[in-house]
Input
Amino acid sequence: MFKKILVAGTLALSLGAGCLPAKNAETPDRATARATILTVAKAVSIADQACATYATANHDAATAKKCADAYDLARPSLVGAEAAVDGWSDATAGNLACLSADAISALEQFAGIFLGAQLALPTTVVDALHLADTLHQLCVN
Amino acid sequence: MDDQQEQTVFDGIGIAISVLSVLIKAYPQFADWIRDLIDGKIDPISVRVADILPEESASRKAQHDLGG
Output
């Protein structure tokens, strides 16, 4: 089922990209890779903000530190993956999942922290974790 | 493009729309993303990771504010 969703998502992003002005045209693979990176980045941002809100409200510096460490793992990974997409090649296409490995690991850390704090995981993070799971399998394979 | 190819494309678009419809209902965040993309509010090329993720996280700022 998720493969169908991923294919549909890819198609949707391609269709969406097709609606944009010509100057923004990228190949569907490249546009999808870029959108995937931005989606994971958005999920990290939302998780970080939710964690900061929780930590501040509960005077919980230890949880804030755990989330900040996960963020510091994700950010350079995503910046690196984005740079690889900027200089797109066939090798990039094959390695995207592995280039984002630290970001995926960070998202999983966020999920663990939220679970430990009995916090509901934001829906964007849940969506990104599904995506991350597929990416992780692509990297392993 | 011959008739058979046209039919294949037509069928493919129909299936894609059906799957997208399910996807948009199941994943509200995805629906928002697609809507913003089509409306031109999101430009996947001009938006950068650094725009979404500043160097210092909100969590790190909270940690420092809490004296951790």
User: Anything to note?
Assistant: Chain B has a mean pLDDT of 76.
